[in-house]
Amino acid sequence: MTNSTVTREKRRFRWPRVTLSEEKYRWIGRGVLVLAPLLAFTLVEYLNYNDPWRDFSPIQIGLNLIWYYLLELIFYFARGRRVSAAKWGLGIAWGFGLANHYLISFRGRTLFPGDFLTLGTAVNVAGNYDYTLDRMQLLSLLILVLALLALFLLPREERIPFAWRRFLPPVGIAGAVLAVFFGTGFVESQGIEPSMWTTRGNGLFLNFTVCLKYMRVEQPEGYSQRALEQLTDGTASDGGSATVADPDGMTRPVNVIVIMNESFSDLTVLPGVETNRDAMPFLRSLRENTIKGYAYSSVFGGTTANSEYEFLTGNTTAYLPAGTVPYQMYVSDGDPSLVGQMKALGYTAIAAHPYRSSGWNRPSVYGKLGFDQVYFEGDFQNRTYMRGDARTGYVTDQCDYENLIRLYEEKKSGEPLFFFNVTMQNHSGYQMAWDNLPREVWLTGELEGRFQTVNQYLSLVYQSDQALKTLIGYFSQVEEPTMILFFGDHQPQVATNFYTDVLGENPDAALAQKKQMVPFFLWANYDIPEAEGVELSLNYLSALLMDTANLPMTGYQKYLLELWQTVPVLNTVGVGDGRGGWYGAGEALPADLEEAAQGYQMLLYNNIFDKSHRLDPFFRLTTEEPA
Fold this sequence. Notes:
Layout: H1 3-11, H2 22-47, H3 52-55, H4 58-79, H5 82-107, H6 119-125, H7 135-152, H8 164-183, H9 186-189, H10 204-213, H11 225-232, E1 243-245, E2 251-253, E3 255-261, E4 274-275, H12 281-285, E5 290-296, H13 304-313, H14 326-329, H15 338-344, E6 348-352, H16 362-369, E7 373-375, E8 385-386, E9 394-395, H17 397-410, E10 417-422, E11 443-444, H18 452-475, E12 482-488, H19 498-503, H20 509-512, E13 517-524, E14 531-537, H21 541-548, H22 555-566, E15 569-571, E16 574-576, E17 582-584, H23 591-608, H24 616-619
Parallel strand pairs: 3-10, 3-12, 5-14, 6-7, 6-10
Antiparallel strand pairs: 1-2, 4-11, 5-13, 8-9, 12-13, 15-16, 16-17
């Protein structure tokens, strides 16, 4: 060994470790295995503003701790060391807690199993949020670091060699726990159900695993081919063509343009929200050849893909497992949708979204649904951005619509066009820069000066409204019959306490639906019936579009229009009866609503999960070939 090597060895820093007898260390190792999950559970729940030892029942505490101990057991298997298992269990559990904390803050909902299928989408927009640690995060992080440091100072134990006789008892216990949890009705018997908006009452790990348990979709009660035939009897799909009569009596194809505007909503529907000026003056001014009102979304603050899915298929996500994204799990080649319907009518179907293609599995889904052309951010010409540049900002609605017009002008004259456009300008987070965004609208009254994120959002909506004015102005001068459907996908997750301030901590069913309201309108450059104050959930919107455009409809769309009369709002938050009655998710419904909802649920199951027995003639036009 050279002198330099000896010098480096002498200078190498070594952490001091406690010296213990083998017997004492064995007992300390066992104690660590017992206490570490208790500490992890406490840190995770305080990180999410729960006091588990005060707020949770013994059964809730026990059902949470099971998963902490199982997590530690997994690392004990993998590492073969007690202290190492405790360190990994603590760190991973705290990481889960931190992820849930941010998800509630940014998206207004808890962590679900399906989120692991959407990590690519999350990474896309991750850089646009504020990750500043609050007091509770800092305190829990400090305790975690101190606990890990204490464990690190213990003597390094020898790796325990793997032997089934040693690990069979804990494996057997773990298997029994899993069998009881997932294979019996024990959890349900305790009144424990998934929570979307907060883990309070369940705890993070319990809520996550209950959601995992509920991801399995059971066949609805009374489901059978005979029941389906009774539901669909007398409701047949149409044939026909994509034409409309113009004022001169001629029939020409009608172009159909659908714009789902990111996070576009009217916050003045919320109690006590006042602004210095109207954020959407042009939209409110639309009267002639316009049907408008409010649609009720099934999502809030994010999960745009579920609003897309509800619109394009007519399938509500209310009866799907909490937190799942159908784009990730349930869409197959050729599934019945508005896209296939329009193509059967001779339309060229185009999808456009001015952001990255990796979001929500869109390239795969759009291909399965049958779009002829798909455009993402890199395909948009002369891109302009708001709240940043090409790296940090989002493409403006004005730029989006200019590209829409360009693609319209490139089509052959008389060729019917179906254009589905998902915008990006108004996406969260709202702590971003104000680059290229004038401060036009802000909160007044009691909320003035309190929520700068809301003020930024309101100014974004104003810019969207101005871009919309340009778009409608262009198509009002176009000779080809054209109908435009415009709607928001969900309300924004602005400031964490904004909605609790205006709606309260535990809003009733009617108030809870205020968070789901988004404006919509149907406008045409030819004569159509006019209406205001229309209310419906997003799953009905494509049926209303086809009916208003006087285009051939599927039996399913006709069924949805009838269902709309009985159950005008049906989403993940609950049900509205159109007479002022609102019912929360899982709440008992009056007999007429219950019967209608059960019938819809059977059709959904047949369409989404029982594809080998799907009633294709009901879900497709007579001119549309099954996949």
